[in-house]
Amino acid sequence: MTAYNSLARHILAPTLDVLRGTHVVSHFRELEASQWWSKEELQELQSTRLREIVQHSYEHVPYYRQIMDTRGLKPSDVRRATDLTNLPVLTKDLVRANLRRLVADNVPSRKLLLSRTGGSTGSPLAFYTTADDWFSHGRARGLIAMDWADIHMGDRTVSFPAGFGLPTRKERALRPLIQRLRRSREIDVKSISDDSLPDIIEAIRRIRPRALIAYPTVLALLAQYIKETDKAAPPVHAVLTGGEQMFPHQRSLVRDVFGHEPFSRYGSHENYLLGTECDQHQGFHMFVQDLVVEVVDDSGMPLPSGQEGHVLVTNLHARGMPFIRYDTGDIASWVAESCSCGRSMPLLNNLVGRSCDVIITPSGKRVAGTAIGLSRMALLGVWRLQIVQETLDSVHVRLVVRSDADDHEKEKVRAGVVSILERSLGADMSIEVAFVDHIEPTPAGKHVPVVSRLSGRLQQGHIA
Ligand SMILES: [Zn+2]
C-alpha cells in the first residue's frame, strides 16, 4: 500500500461519498469483513435482507403486491432464499410489460433514473434505478473485486468503457474529479483498427497503469496485436475483465501476452457486479451478502451443483425498482467444492452467457460488438436483436419489437437502429434491417447478438 492508496481510501473515497450522497466506503468495509464469514453467517445476513426487500416490495411495488395477493402469499412466507420458488421468475418481457408497476411508490420520482442495458445480451431493456441502488453496493462490490486482484483504491488503472451513459448529471459533473482521484484513465475503443492499435498500446505504456480493465474481446484484440508484432506488452500488475463470456483461447492469449491470469468478473448492467474470481480462478464467488443467486430449470426450480440452468438474481438492495428472481439470460452451474482461498461465498461456473463477435468494416475498422451501443436501442423499443455480418461491406440486422407495433412505429425503429449502427460502423457499411418474431439462442442457450461469418484471425470472440 502506498501513501496515495491510504489517502484514496481514507480521505478521497469518503469525500466522494459525501459529494454523491452514496455509501460506497461503508459497504466496502462491510464486504471486506463478510467475505471471510462462514456459510451460515452469510445465509443469515442474506435472509435478513431478503425479508426486508420482500416486505418493501409487497408494501410499495404494485406488481409484486398483486402477484403475492393472487398467490395468497404474505411477505412472511418468504423468509430465506429457498422460499423464493413461491414467486414467479421476472423475465425481461415482464419488465417491459410492467415497467411502471415495478417502481416503488414511496420513491420520489426525482430520485428515479431511467437506465438501459442490452449491450451484450442482444435484448435491450430500459429499467429504473436510483443513485443509491445503482452506486453504493454495486461500486463496493467492484472495489472488492479489484482488491482480490491486488488493485487498491488510488491505484492507476486503464479501462475501456462500454459506452453506457452515466445515470445522473451530478455523476457526469463529478466524473473528471473522480477519475483524477482514482487515477483511472479511460481509452475510447469504439473502433479498433490496425492504425489505432499502436497508439492504444503506446497510451497504455505511457500511463503505466497497475491494472488493465477491458472486455475479453478488446483484451484479446490488444494481446493478439502485441503477439503478432512481437512487441513487449506494457507491464501491468493485473488484468481484469468482464461484461461478456471469456473463452479459454482468449484467457490463454491474455495470460501469455500480459503474463498474468486474468481476473474475470460476472455482472450485469441492471444489478452491477454479481460475482468475481479470486486468485484461485475456480469460478465466480457470488456476492450473497447483496444478492440471492439461483440456478434453475425451465420451470424455475433450483438445480443441484454441476447442473447447468438459468441464472436468476434477486437484488437485496434495489429499492427503487426491485429485481426479484430476475432472469439474467445467462446459463451457469454451481460448483460443489468450496474454494481453496477459504471464502464461503459460493462459486458459479461454466457460465454460458453473453458474447459478441467483432465487426470488420470495409475501411479496416474493427468494432467490438460490445462497443456498438446496442443498449441505446432499448429506448427505441427494440426487444431483441441480432446483427450478422455476412460479407465485408454488409450487415443484416434482425429485430424483435412489440407484436402489435404498426408499420409507422417499425419504420421509426428501423431508422433509429440504422442511425446508431452507421455511427459505429461508418457509412461504408450497408445495413439491412428485418423484423422477425423470434431470435432463438444457440443450442447451448447462448444469445449472440453480434455474429460475424467472416473467417480470419480477427474473430476472437465467438465459438459457435
Ligand atoms: Zn476463492
Describe the fold and architecture:
This protein is of the alpha/beta class and 464 residues long. Helices cover 33% and strands 23% of the residues. It has 11 helices and 20 strands. It has an 11-stranded mixed beta sheet with strand order 4-3-6-7-8-9-10-14-13-12-11. Helix 10 links the parallel strand 7 and strand 8. Helix 3 crosses helix 4. The longest helix is centred in the N-terminal third of the chain and has 22 residues. The radius of gyration is 22 Å and the shape is globular. 45% of the residues are buried. The C terminus is likely disordered. Bound molecules: zinc ion. Zinc ion binds next to loops.
Q: Give the number of helices.
A: 11
Order of strands in the sheet with most strands: 4-3-6-7-8-9-10-14-13-12-11
Mean pLDDT figure: 87
Shape: globular
Q: Bound compounds, please?
A: zinc ion
Radius of gyration: 22 Å
Q: Summarize the biggest pleated sheet.
A: 11 strands, mixed
- Measured between the Cα atoms of the first and last residue, the distance is 44 Å
- In terms of per-residue confidence, which ranges show pLDDT below 50 for 5 or more consecutive residues? 457-464
Structural class: alpha/beta
What percent strand? 15-25%
Residues in helices, as a percent range:
25-40%
Number of strands: 20
